[in-house]
Every structure is written in structure tokens, then in C-alpha cells.
Amino acid sequence: MAVNTVPNGNATENKAGETTRGAQYFTPRVDIYETDNELTLYADVPGVRAEDVDLRFERGELILQGRVAPGPKPGLALQNEYQEGDFYRVFQIHESIDSTRIEAECKRGVLTVHLPKVEAMRKRQVQVRGE
């Protein structure tokens, strides 16, 4: 696999969130799939709109930040289990990924990131000729 998660504490269970740079954030859960041509990363970022995603590639790392605008709270809360907060996660990207062709989209709380492999790393069928 060409993507590694950079550890940042308890990566999957941040019930109360973690703090960084003076703010609370949550670590989004992700699924990563590989095909011959690319890796596809799906990140669960509920409440994040496409324009509130900051996704950048720097020095071999894919940095994902998502901002959540607080929603309206109608009435008195009788039970409050859902916490709103920003998302943050970092992935180490192997050189087999073509960073110039990374694309992403965010729909219905799921960020989908396409990480195409460089041509030299793709599998290729070799044609065998006979007499």
C-alpha cells in the first residue's frame, strides 16, 4: 500500500476530540481501496461542506482538514451525544503516487480522494508475439 497514516494519538476513538493549535479536532475514519491505477480514500467528515475542506500535499504528506460550522440548536437539549468539531488527519504518501494528479470531492459528509499511481508503478500486460 502506498499510504500510511501518521500516528496522532488514538486515531480511531476520539470521543472527546483532541486539541491542537488551541482548537478541538476529530480524527475522521477512512477506508482506502487500491486498484491497478490508483488508491481511493474515503473519509467520513459529517457536517463538512466541500468549500470547508483544506486538502493539501506537502513534503510527501497528504494533510486533510475539515471545518464544521456549528448548526442551530432548537430548544433545550435533553440528551447531547453528538459533538461538532473540525477534522484533521495526515497521511504519508509513497512516491508511487502522482501528487500532481490528486483529485478530491466532498458529498454528503464523505470526502473522496483519488490518488493516481505514477505510470511506472502501474501494472502493464506485456504482449507476447509468436511465430
Give your account of this protein's structure:
With 131 residues, this protein is an all-beta fold. It has strands spanning 3-5, 18-20, 23-26, 30-34, 38-44, 53-58, 61-66, 86-93, 103-107, 110-116. The protein has one domain (3-9, 17-70, 83-120): Sandwich (Immunoglobulin-like), CATH 2.60.40.790. Helix content is 0%, strand content 41%. A hairpin with a 2-residue loop joins strand 2 (18-20) and strand 3 (23-26). The protein is elongated. The N and C termini lie far apart (39 Å).
Number of helices: 0
Q: Report the CATH C-level class.
A: Mainly Beta
The string of secondary-structure elements, in order, is: EEEEEEEEEE
Question: Which spans of ≥5 residues are poorly predicted at pLDDT below 50?
Answer: 6-15
- Give the total of domains: 1
Give the end-to-end Cα distance, rounded to a whole number of Å: 39 Å
State the CATH topology.
Immunoglobulin-like
The appropriate CATH architecture is: Sandwich
Query: What is the CA-atom radius of gyration, in angstroms?
Result: 19 Å
Oligomer: single chain
Strands, count: 10
Percentage of β-strand residues: 35-45%
Give a short synopsis of this structure:
The protein has no helices and ten strands. It has 131 residues and is mostly beta strands.
